[in-house]
Amino acid sequence: MKTRIRELRKARKLSQEELADLVGTTRQTITSIEVGKYTASLPLAYKIARVFGLTIEEVFDFSDLEE
The pTM is what? Predict the structure, then answer.
């Protein structure tokens, strides 16, 4: 799944570690989500979106998911 996390994080000048601390996860998890190796759980996706003041749909691209 594609995300805008890296772009949004850099715009806010947040490191992966800082974002991980804000949402209660590890830097490795943030890295994995950014490179598309891991799909965030709904609660984690919500927390990430809240950090940036956006909706989940504005941060995560669901267009590649089949219905």
Answer: 0.91
